[in-house]
UniProtKB/TrEMBL annotation:
This is C2 domain-containing protein. Residues 366-386 are annotated as: Disordered. Signal peptide: none annotated. It comes from Aegilops tauschii subsp. strangulata (Goatgrass). It comes from the Eukaryota. SUPFAM superfamilies: C2 domain (Calcium/lipid-binding domain, CaLB) (SSF49562). Residues 22-138, 176-299 form the C2 domain. It holds the Pfam family C2.
Length: 397
């Protein structure tokens, strides 16, 4: 019989499409599918033509100002140029938008040459794998007759997976002065630091079902953000049910969310009664970097009744309780991208990372004769090396 071919362990060049798109049956997916989508309003100011100064001199120092509620962003300014080209992209987080329209103004220093106004309800939405929105020419309004001038731009709604996101400037309006925000910062997208939230539901005590003539069928529903899990119905059908069941969630720093626990009784098919709820801030949950056990805790269940169309707390002399063991596990790596693309498999807890042994510096240079030299690499100890432009610093572990 033919002998099997020996394994080939030689180095091979691969070209994975990191962060790109790949076919998966009839669906096109990307690594951004594994993180929560963050909607943004994008504005790309490309160029202008036939601009004229307000004073009639024939030349101007143009710039573009983009105003959206309390946001105010400005492109760079050209000197004595009636056909400037900016090609700058600005990104506005959707959750902070407090206006129904966006105003884009072309200025000559402090004088207004003209403006374009967009109604946000009419802005198109582009989500990959949709093709990017092509810019169009818009006539500048508010000018005096005969001065002319047009602005090429594109305005659309997208997400952090948009092709324009890496080059966009992000308008930051955390603190807005009285005259609006005039400062901008470069776009920096930080992958959220993820932890596993382990919820061990042990038992409940002194539950009060509405119908005391039947054995309750109780389960626990846990909700964290848009994640929702539930335990099985307790085998001990009593007012003191037991589960001893683990529920696993993924939580992101800085842990501003709350874990909502709801103890419910299945009184009929597709009909459940809430016996009590507990709200636990993630900031109060212990972080566990290793296998050490976590101390359990008893949490009171708040009883709610419906009244006047609203949920109101019911005054009771005692409270039902639920027994839990909760921890944020940092001894694992929470995958936020496809496993075969992931380049960082370190544990979430930074204390468990292996120390670096040096720095790999990758240099790229171009020859003076016009021919491009190949990439070179060096490994050096971490001894205060200066970072130079065009240098990629990679820690070696």
């Amino acid at each position: 019989p033919p002998q099997p071919r020996p394994e080939d362990y030689t180095l091979k060049e691969i070209t994975p499409r990191l962060g790109g798109f790949m076919a998966a049956g009839d669906k096109r997916t990307s690594t951004y599918d594994l993180v929560e989508q963050m909607p943004y309003l994008y504005v790309r100011a490309v160029k202008a033509k036939d601009l004229h100064a307000k004073d009639g001199s024939g030349s101007c120092d143009p710039s573009v100002e983009i105003k959206l509620g309390n946001y105010r962003c400005t492109t760079r300014q050209f000197e004595k140029n009636t056909n400037p080209e900016w090609n700058q992209v600005f990104a506005f987080p959707k959750e902070r938008i407090q206006s129904s329209y966006i105003e884009i103004t072309v200025k000559d220093k402090d004088d207004i040459i003209g403006r374009v106004i967009f109604d946000l309800n009419e802005v198109p939405k582009r989500v990959p794998p949709d093709s990017p929105l092509a810019p169009e020419w818009y006539r500048l309004e508010g000018q005096k007759e005969g001065r002319g001038g047009e602005l090429m731009l594109a305005v659309w709604m997208g997400s952090q997976a948009d092709e324009a996101f890496p080059e966009a400037w992000h308008a930051d309006a955390a603190t807005v002065p009285s005259d609006g925000l005039a400062s901008i910062r470069s776009k920096v997208y930080l992958t959220p630091k993820l932890w596993y939230l382990r919820v061990n539901v042990i038992e409940a005590q002194d539950l009060v079902p509405s119908d005391k003539c039947r054995y309750p069928e109780v389960y626990v529903k846990a909700t964290l953000g848009n994640q929702s899990l539930r335990t099985r119905i307790s085998a001990s059908k009593s007012v003191n049910p037991m589960w001893n069941e683990d529920l696993m969630f993924v939580a992101a720093e800085p842990f501003e969310e709350h874990l909502i626990l709801s103890v419910e009784d299945r009184i009929a098919p597709n009909k459940d009664e809430v016996l009590g709820k507990a709200c636990i801030p993630l900031q109060n949950v212990d972080r566990r970097p290793d296998h050490r056990p976590v101390h359990s805790r008893w949490c009171n269940l708040e009883k709610h009744v419906a009244g006047d169309g609203e949920q109101k707390k019911k005054d009771v002399k005692f409270s039902s309780r639920i027994h839990l063991r909760i921890s944020l596990d940092g001894g694992y790596h929470v995958l936020d991208e496809s496993a075969h693309y992931s380049s960082d498999l370190r544990a979430t807890e930074k204390q468990l990372w292996k120390p670096s042994i040096g720095i790999l510096t990758v240099l790229r240079s171009t020859g003076t004769s016009g021919s491009e030299q190949g990439p070179s690499s060096t490994v050096s100890a971490q001894n205060g090396m200066n970072n130079t432009p065009g240098t990629c610093m990679i820690l070696v572990r």
